[in-house]
Amino acid sequence: MNDLSVNEKVLLGIDSNNEVPELNFDIDSEDELSAVARQIKRFNEAVTTKGKKVRVSKNVVKKEIGASKRRMQVLERVSSLPANHSKNLVEGKEQISDKVLFSTTLMSSIVGNQLISTDGGEAVGVRNFSNGKYKHPFLLQAIQILFDDTSVEGTFDDDLPVQILNGNITIQNNAKTLIEKLPVSALATVNGYPLDKPFNTYELDNPKWFEANTDVQAILNLSSALTDGAIRINFIGTEVRPI
User: Fold this and answer.
1) Is the peptide bond before 194 cis (omega within 30 degrees of 0)?
2) What is the model's pLDDT at position 51?
3) In whole angstroms, what is the distance from residue 178 CA to residue 153 CA?
4) Terminal C-alpha separation, the chain
5) 201: which strand partners?
6) pLDDT band at residue 212, thresholds of 50, 70 and 90?
7) Which domains does the chain have, with CATH numbers?
8) Is 240 in contact with 94 (CB distance < 8 Å)?
9) Are 101 and 235 in contact (CB under 8 A)?
10) Which end of the chain is more exposed for a tag (fewer CB within 10 A), N or C?
11) pTM for this one?
12) Alpha helices in the chain (DSSP H)
């Protein structure tokens, strides 16, 4: 800190004791994460002088973002977004919002183990993104697999058949493998257990970005053939979208 000029210290809000002040946000009147992102830009991105970079402490970030695990996950990964999205977040032109992407298909219609159609448009109750692509950056934070033993118009609260339960799933985006051969049993709820997580849901400790307008693929490998019923995959996470 001592290598910074007086003007640089004033710009960054550093006091005479070379202390970075605690950050306080009015989060009632604007998007919380956008407010935090703007402060982080000020402290974490701005100035490098004589090889030293000023960084906001992790403790400050943790305090200001609160106890939400998912919000923390997004905040920690904002810097890995394409530059235009990071800039728009900082300038308040984009926001961070909860989002669930989903795709539903009949087991008999699955081609090449692919759960997501690359030639299907949005359809209420079937899928909410088109042609296997989503238009905004999306941070994948959890995966849910649901099954209905009748049709794509069912309630999707049936137990997973053993062919799915004993299989595995791979998630890819833009030809890159994000999750490889995750056992479906790792997310399954069997006989009501485990009780401490949502039904048939796997929460990622290492969330992954889906790039905007790139192919999203979910490859389901069954333990044996299954042609009855319908399957739905939910991608649970956070999107970056225009305000």
Assistant:
1) yes
2) 44
3) 30
4) 37
5) 144
6) very high
7) 6-67 (no CATH), 95-242 (2.60.120)
8) yes
9) yes
10) C
11) 0.75
12) 6-12, 32-40, 58-65, 69-77, 83-90, 162-165
